[in-house]
Prior knowledge:
Layout: H1 2-25, E1 43-44, E2 53-54, E3 62-66, H2 67-73, H3 79-86, E4 90-92, E5 107-109, E6 117-121, E7 124-125, E8 155-161, H4 166-169, E9 176-182, E10 187-198, H5 202-205, E11 209-224, E12 228-239, H6 255-265, H7 283-294, H8 302-310, H9 314-320, H10 326-333, E13 348-361, E14 367-382, E15 405-423, E16 426-444, E17 459-479, E18 485-501, H11 505-508, E19 552-568, E20 573-584, E21 588-602, E22 605-616, H12 620-624, E23 627-633, E24 636-642, H13 648-652, E25 661-674, E26 679-696, E27 700-701, H14 708-715, E28 720-722, E29 724-746, E30 749-765, H15 778-781, H16 784-791, E31 797-807, E32 810-819, E33 822-823, E34 841-842, E35 845-855, E36 860-867, H17 881-884, E37 904-912
Parallel strand pairs: 6-9, 24-28
Antiparallel strand pairs: 1-2, 3-8, 4-5, 6-7, 8-9, 10-11, 10-37, 11-12, 12-13, 13-14, 14-15, 15-16, 16-17, 17-18, 18-19, 19-20, 20-21, 21-22, 22-25, 23-24, 25-26, 26-29, 27-28, 29-30, 30-31, 31-32, 32-35, 33-34, 35-36, 36-37
Amino acid sequence: MKQNNKIKVTAVTTALIFYSGLSVEAQTKKEGDTLRNKEISEVVLLGSRSTGRVKTDTPVPVDVFKMQNIVTESPQQSISQILNYLVPSFSSTSHTINDGTDHSDPAQLRGLGPDQVLVLLNGKRRHQSSLINTTLTPGRGSVGTDLNAIPAFALDRIEVLRDGASAQYGSDAIAGVINLQLKKSIGFSGQITTGGYLSSVANNHTGGVDGETLSVDLNYGVKIGNNGFINITGSGAFRDPYSRAEEQNGSIYNAYNAIAYRAMQNGVDIESLYRNINNTPNTNSIINTIKQYAGNVGYFDPNYLSQINSANSIADLQGILNRDVSDQELAYRGLKRKDFNMKVGQSKLASGQLYVNTEIPINEEWKFYSFGGFSYRNGQAGGFYRFPNQARTLTSLYPNGFLPEIETNISDYSLAAGVKGKIGDWNVDLSNTFGKNAFYYTINNTENATLGNTSPTEFDAGGMAFSQNTLNLDFSKKFDAFEGLNFAFGGEYRYENYIIQAGSPESYNTYDINGNVINGTTSSLLLNTDFFGNARPGGAQVFPGYRPENAISRKRNSYSAYADAEVDFTKWLLVDGAIRYENYSDFGSTFNYKLAANIKLDKNFKLRFAGSTGFRAPSLAQLYYSATSTLINGGNTTQVATFRNDEQITKSLGIPSLKQEKSKSLSAGFNFTIPQLRLNFSADAYFIRIDDRIVLTDLFYRPDTAGTVQTAFDQANAEAAQFFANAIDTETKGLDLVVTQKNKINAKISIDNSLSFNINKTKQVGSIKSSEQLQSQISSYFSEENRIYFEEAVPRVKANLSHSIRLYGIDVFIRNSYFGKVTDANLLDLNGDGVANEHFVLNDKVVTDLSVGHRFTKQIGLTVGANNIFNIMPTRNPNIETLTAGNQLVYSRQVSQYGIGGRYLFARLDFNF
Length: 913
């Protein structure tokens, strides 16, 4: 049935394009070459220091998206998700059970890292997030910009420059630049949107509706004087979680859990009789208590009870009581396996945002401007379930285990202010832009197992913050030379500060049985253990807090100077050149250039070429982030320490200081317009070489030999370590294709069509740049799993075909989005040969969005629709226990083309006055 539906939709979209083309061709010659749609003739400012050029005349590809219709008709509401469906070369999806990444979606352009695309707000550099992605997802080891801190309703348009632009804008602009332009409109407008997931996979594959959302967006603009304005946007959103686990099928209870629970029902806590089962004066009491209450377990058969009663030591009982009794114990406690499901999917989130954009004339030539805003989000996501039969669970606190929760408090605020005007014939722009992002964690419904029954169940785990202040001074002037010359120059000073704040001691410490913090000399007889002798882990379960050793405040500054010239040598040849020098206080200087050209072979056919160098400075987080976290991969749990680049252990292993990534980019394309059909066709091929890419290495394990390195592991309470290093070089090749057509058939019928396509491939080239000391472990320096995150974790092929139809007052929007294959990084034994060296591939999929809107009056409209209307789900994980975690991870938690929610329905009421 779903395949038939897809065929019908494809047939409809093909017919729409065919019909709209015939209709436009049939229009009178009177309109002729003036029939250029607004998108084709859109003036863009991104990538140019002049007053702007028509989109088709730019020497590099720039997409322009007017947000007025998008925020009304699109099922997607956040900026990152809107772009994921609008721009094929852009990728961003939400993730699950990945700590802070559950609430901040990594965004990538042209298959490169989240930190290799520069984000501007009103043309000014936007600060990055304080969150560094250290989990097992695309963009691992990088710091991106939090696009979702800005409400989409506050935007007038989004511009996406798909080409390297470091010579124009500085660090990070290797893959391209995204400019978010705030509204300047006058009047009052708003929208109320509600929705939810109506899907067969909702509510852990039982069906129904879950993941309900409600958002309210309001915008108000008023004139100031003749040419000034102030525009204010307020947004609030509430999002319920959804889960896509199936019924838990793993082991939950052992026989010891059953006996301990019967004792607890009678007020006896067996676990209070010991802290270390191999070092307790209460051995006989423990044995006798177990024998006493074993008889209360009704499903123990006489033979098994006889074994228990015949045991004479703890060791004997350990061998006997490890039996899995999950099904029997669930029945006794009146529980079901679904009660032990994890929260696999969208996290719970509440947010509030306020943004302001204003311009105030000072006189006829000068004006003051300012913009910025505040965003606060509170999120709650689950971790892996802690079962009663695991050493990390205190059954005296949680008899049935527990699902720990990570609560994040994310605040983001920014303020830019400046003046611009003219001094003589020169345009002058002086501005200062400040921004800060903070990410703090509270861990709920959890424990520090080494504190025993005195453990808190809520912990302050600390957090991090990043702030940036940028001062810019820009000059530009048009000269009457050739067919036109625009020359610009300027400078920038930037200050950055990165902070990690430690959590409460109980959130990170591991304690011995006497309540002392353990160290490298602590005897194994003083460690807290479970009944079976397994050491209990310390710190808050699911997310140990940041330690005092992690707490830092590091800063740096940089200054730069640039020059930029755009020359129309003839009416058919535009050449654009830029140079930029930049110096950083922590790693030195860099010089970059760019040369681009647009050649008009005909007024409707143009070629464009560009070549540039670029760079990306290592982020302060990559330089100074450190933490100990719980890594769960392939069913194994490991305490992993991330060490700073300047720590002694890093130097002892020969890992050099981080330096900038360096890039070289080439692109070539053409733009072809058929005015009579209002059709625009563009294609651009690109090549990007990046040297010294910074990666987060894989795990190096604690050495057995005593020394500096072993001591560092013990102080961090870690079994394994990872580091940031300039480890590899990569090459990216790709092709972008964009076709647009806008048709107004008559006053009541219009059809707009758009086809976008991207194919790209990133590949590691050359040798891995491992330190000499770690040559023998080069597979951990840049492993096969890490290669997947760089090369195959986001679709190499994406496309979308969309139609906006206005038919006698009814607005219909249809979009088919094609997501190519992606690869899960886990190494698995898929062919049954006993060797885990294969990867699971998620097949390509087509997702359809549909919405229908109607305006009751000019001021009020209603839109209803769906994302993924045919409920197309990603490829399921293979049925391998280490991958599915007891039937919980039905879909990959490492990679996803478009999420795992299924069909999402929405209704949106919009109004303007």
